[in-house]
C-alpha cells in the first residue's frame, strides 16, 4: 500500500507553486513543513485528488491517477484547511452525509463518528447545528469527518490550527493512532513537536520537497 | 455503496437545509402574492392576459391556466434566485469532490431536494389560487379543474428551473455572473418564444419550445380569429372572450410535451452530475492580463521597500467614495466596456440605447462589488473600520451614481445635458441602491444580479 508523487508540478497563472516534487508516502506520519505559501496545501490537495497537477504523476498501489483515482478515494480521508461547512446541519447529520458519500453503512458510521467526536471533545455538541460552532470546534469537526471509515491515506491540512493545547493533543492522539496502519500526510505549524513521531519530514520550499533530518 | 444511498443522502441533507432556512417561508409567500397581483380584476386592472385583445372569461379552468402563467413569468426567476442563492449554495465542496460517490447520484439527490421545494411552492400557490378563485371565478367553482390545470402547466416548469440550477452549479463557468445572465436570457426566451411557437400548429416539437406551457391551452381554445396572445397589455377590447382550456390541453402533443419536460429535467440533472467539474481557485486576474497593458493599471506603482511609512489617509467622505468607485470599476474589462457603453450613448435614442448599455454594465459591476462587501466575513471586518457600515453603503450608492454619470458624459455633450443627466442619475442611483440592499439581505451577489437584470429588461423594453 503506497502513495507516491513523481515530479509533480502545479502553477496558478504564472506563479509556479510546485515545480518538481517527488516523494513516497509510507505507512506512518509524513510531515509537510515549510514557509507560508511554499505549496504545502497545494501538494496536499493534489495528493487528496482535490486538484490536478500540471505535470507529473500520483501513483496509488502502483497505478497512476486518474486510473486509480476512484480506488484512492475509496480509502481517502481529507481535511482541508478551510471548508464551507453546511451551517444548517447538525454535526451528526453532516457526518452521516459524508459517510454515505464514502460508502459507509449508516449505523457503523454513526457509532464511529460519535466515537471520534468523543475523543475530540465534541460529543456533547453532536446534535447542535454547525452554525453555532466556534472556529476550533469546526476544525475538529473537519478532522473528524476525515477520520471516518479508517482511511488508508489520511491527508490533513493544519488540523491543529486554532486549537488549544488540550484539543491539539487529542487530535494528535487520534492521528498517531491512525498512522500505525495508514499513510498520514499532514501540514502543521507544530512540526518540531511532532517530528520525533514522524517517519519522514518533507520541507517544501522553492517548489521542491526536501527530506529533513 | 449504492447509487440510491448517495442520492438519498444528498436529497435528505439538502432538504433538511432548505427546511431550516428562514427564507423558505418568504419563497412560499411569493407565489401567492404574485398570483394576487397577476389575476386581473373584472375591469381589466392588474397585469392583463389577453387573448384576441380581450380578457378571457375567468372560468375555473382558465383560472388554473392563469395561475400557470404566474409561475412561468413572475415565479420562475424568483425560485431560481432562491435556489441559486439559498442555503444549499454553500456545500462542503472539497469533501464531496474527494469522495468516491457518483456525481450523478449526488446531482440527482440535490435535484430531488430542489424539486421538493418547488412542489412546496406549487402547493402554496394552489392553496392561494383556490381561495382567489372562490372570490373571482365566473360560473361554477371547480377546485379540481383549477388544481389539475395549474399542476399540468406549472409543475414541469418548476422542475425545469430546478434542473437548470443544478446544471449551472455543476459547470465552473456558469457558477457566477455568466450563469445568472444565461438564466435571465432563458427566462426571457421562455416568455417570448412560446407566443411565436403557439402561432404554429400544435405538435410535440412546437410545444416543447414552451417551458412555461401556459399559452397553448389558451390559444387552442380561442374562437377562430382570436388566436393572438399578450401578457401585460394595456389596450383591451371591451367584453371577454370565452375559452375552453380543456380543448387546449387535449391539443396534439401538448400533454406529451409536459411529460417531456419532466423527463428532460431529470436528464438535465443527471447530465449535471456527468459534466460536474470541481471548484478551483483560479488566478482570475490572469485571464485578461493582456488588457492591463492597455489601461492605466500598468502605471500603478509597484512595491518599494525603501519608501516612507504611509501617512494616515484623510478619513473624508470623498476618499471613501473614490475608493468605492475604484472597487466597483475594478477588473481589466471595465474600462473598455465603459468606453463601449459611452460610445453607444452617442446613438440617437439615448433612452433605449446608451442608457440601457451603461445600466447593463453597472448591473454586473455593482452587484459584484456589493456582494463582495456584504459577505458575512468581510462585514465583520469592516464593521470595525472608523466609518460606520451604513456610511460606506451610502458611499457605494454615490459612487455607483457618479460612475453612471461619468459614462453618460459623451452622450450629454451630443444630446444635451438635461435629459441624459436625469436618466443617468436615476438609473445609477436606483441600481446602486437596489444592489447594496439586495446584497446585504442575501450576503451574496446572486440575488442583486438577477433582480437587476430583470429590472434592466423592464427598463429597456418600456
Summarize the structure.
The complex is a heterodimer of chains A (213) and B (462). With 213 residues, chain A is an alpha/beta fold.
Question: Which labels suit this protein?
Answer:
heterodimer; A: 213 residues; alpha/beta; 28% strand; B: 462 residues; mainly alpha; 2 domains; two-stranded antiparallel ribbon; two-stranded parallel sheet; 19 helices; 67% helix
What would you report as the Rg of chain B, rounded to the nearest angstrom? 25 Å
Order of helices and strands of chain B: HHEEHHHHHHHEEHHHHHHHHHH
The 3D shape of chain A can be described as globular
Largest sheet of chain A: 6 strands, mixed
> Helical percent range of chain A?
25-40%
Strand order across the biggest sheet of chain B?
1-3
Give the uncertain stretches of chain A in residue-range form. Answer: none
Given the helix and strand composition of chain B, which structural class is it?
A: mainly alpha
Q: How would you describe the overall organization of this protein?
A:
The complex is a heterodimer of chains A (213) and B (462). Chain A is α/β, with parallel strands linked by helices. Chain A has helices at residues 40-47, 69-73, 91-102, 106-119, 135-147, 165-179, 191-194; strands at 3-12, 15-25, 28-33, 55-60, 63-64, 76-79, 153-157, 183-187, 200-205, 208-211. In chain A, the strands form two sheets. In chain A, strands 6-7-8-3-9-10 form a six-stranded mixed beta sheet, with helices on both faces. Chain B folds into two domains: 3-275, no CATH class; 316-461, no CATH class. The mean pLDDT of chain B is 85. The interface between A and B is medium-sized, with 33 and 35 residues.
Amino acid at each position: 500500500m503506497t502513495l507516491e508523487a513523481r515530479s509533480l508540478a502545479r502553477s496558478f497563472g504564472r506563479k509556479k507553486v510546485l515545480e518538481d516534487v517527488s516523494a513516497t508516502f509510507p505507512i506512518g506520519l509524513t510531515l509537510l513543513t515549510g514557509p507560508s505559501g511554499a505549496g504545502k496545501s497545494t501538494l496536499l490537495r493534489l495528493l487528496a485528488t482535490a486538484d490536478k497537477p500540471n505535470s507529473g504523476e500520483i501513483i496509488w498501489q502502483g497505478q497512476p491517477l486518474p486510473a486509480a483515482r476512484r480506488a484512492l478515494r475509496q480509502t481517502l480521508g481529507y481535511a482541508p484547511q478551510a471548508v464551507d461547512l453546511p451551517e444548517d446541519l447538525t454535526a451528526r447529520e453532516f457526518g452521516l452525509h459524508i459517510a454515505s458519500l464514502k460508502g459507509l453503512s449508516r449505523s457503523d458510521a454513526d457509532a464511529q463518528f460519535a466515537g471520534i467526536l468523543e475523543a475530540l471533545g465534541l460529543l456533547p455538541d453532536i446534535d447542535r447545528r454547525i452554525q453555532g460552532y466556534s472556529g476550533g470546534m469546526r476544525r475538529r469537526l473537519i478532522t473528524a469527518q476525515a477520520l471516518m471509515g479508517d482511511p488508508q491515506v489520511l491527508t490533513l491540512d493544519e488540523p491543529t490550527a486554532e486549537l488549544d493545547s488540550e484539543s491539539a493533543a487529542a487530535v494528535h492522539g487520534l492521528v498517531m493512532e491512525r498512522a500505525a496502519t495508514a499513510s498520514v500526510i499532514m501540514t502543521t505549524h507544530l512540526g518540531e513537536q511532532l517530528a520525533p513521531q514522524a517517519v519522514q519530514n518533507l520541507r517544501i520550499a522553492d517548489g521542491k520537497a526536501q527530506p529533513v533530518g | 455503496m449504492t447509487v440510491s444511498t448517495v442520492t438519498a443522502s444528498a436529497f435528505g441533507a439538502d432538504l433538511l437545509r432548505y427546511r431550516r432556512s428562514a427564507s423558505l417561508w418568504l419563497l412560499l409567500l411569493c407565489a401567492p402574492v404574485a398570483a394576487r397581483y397577476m389575476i386581473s380584476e373584472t375591469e381589466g386592472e392588474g397585469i392583463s392576459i389577453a387573448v384576441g385583445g380581450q380578457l378571457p372569461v375567468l372560468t375555473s379552468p382558465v383560472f388554473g391556466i392563469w395561475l400557470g402563467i404566474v409561475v412561468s413569468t413572475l415565479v420562475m426567476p424568483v425560485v431560481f434566485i432562491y435556489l441559486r442563492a439559498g442555503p444549499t449554495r454553500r456545500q462542503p465542496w472539497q469533501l464531496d469532490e474527494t469522495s468516491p460517490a457518483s456525481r450523478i447520484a449526488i446531482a440527482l439527490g440535490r435535484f430531488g431536494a430542489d424539486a421538493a421545494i418547488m412542489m412546496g411552492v406549487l402547493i402554496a400557490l394552489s392553496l392561494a389560487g383556490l381561495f382567489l378563485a372562490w372570490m373571482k371565478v365566473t360560473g361554477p367553482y371547480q377546485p379540481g379543474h383549477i388544481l389539475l390545470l395549474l399542476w399540468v402547466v406549472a409543475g414541469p416548469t418548476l422542475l425545469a428551473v430546478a434542473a437548470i440550477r443544478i446544471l449551472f452549479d455543476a459547470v465552473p463557468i456558469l457558477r457566477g455572473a455568466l450563469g445568472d445572465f444565461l438564466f435571465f436570457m432563458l427566462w426571457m426566451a421562455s416568455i417570448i418564444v412560446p407566443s411565436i411557437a403557439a402561432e404554429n400548429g400544435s405538435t410535440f416539437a412546437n410545444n416543447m419550445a414552451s417551458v412555461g406551457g401556459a399559452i397553448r391551452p389558451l390559444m387552442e381554445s380561442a374562437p377562430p380569429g382570436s388566436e393572438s396572445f399578450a401578457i401585460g397589455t394595456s389596450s383591451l377590447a371591451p367584453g371577454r372572450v370565452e375559452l375552453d382550456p380543456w380543448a387546449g390541453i387535449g391539443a396534439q402533443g401538448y400533454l406529451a410535451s409536459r411529460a417531456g419536460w419532466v423527463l428532460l429535467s431529470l436528464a438535465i440533472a443527471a447530465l449535471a452530475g456527468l459534466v460536474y467539474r470541481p471548484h478551483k481557485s483560479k488566478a482570475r486576474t490572469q485571464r485578461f492580463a493582456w488588457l492591463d497593458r492597455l489601461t492605466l493599471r500598468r502605471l500603478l506603482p509597484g512595491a518599494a521597500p525603501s519608501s516612507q511609512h504611509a501617512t494616515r489617509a484623510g478619513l473624508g467622505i470623498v476618499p471613501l467614495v473614490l475608493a468605492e468607485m475604484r472597487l466597483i470599476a475594478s477588473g481589466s474589462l471595465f474600462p473598455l466596456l465603459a468606453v463601449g457603453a459611452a460610445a453607444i450613448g452617442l446613438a440617437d435614442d439615448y433612452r433605449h440605447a446608451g442608457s440601457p448599455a451603461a445600466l447593463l454594465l453597472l448591473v454586473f459591476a455593482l452587484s459584484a462589488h456589493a456582494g463582495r462587501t456584504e459577505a458575512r466575513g468581510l462585514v465583520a471586518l469592516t464593521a470595525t473600520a472608523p466609518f460606520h457600515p451604513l456610511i460606506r453603503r451610502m458611499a457605494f450608492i454615490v459612487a455607483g451614481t457618479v460612475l453612471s454619470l461619468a459614462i453618460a458624459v459623451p452622450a450629454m455633450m451630443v444630446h444635451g445635458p438635461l435629459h441624459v443627466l436625469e436618466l443617468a442619475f436615476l438609473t445609477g442611483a436606483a441600481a446602486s441602491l437596489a444592489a447594496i440592499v439586495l446584497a446585504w439581505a442575501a450576503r451574496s451577489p446572486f440575488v442583486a444580479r438577477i433582480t437587476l437584470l430583470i429590472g434592466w429588461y423592464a427598463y429597456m423594453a418600456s
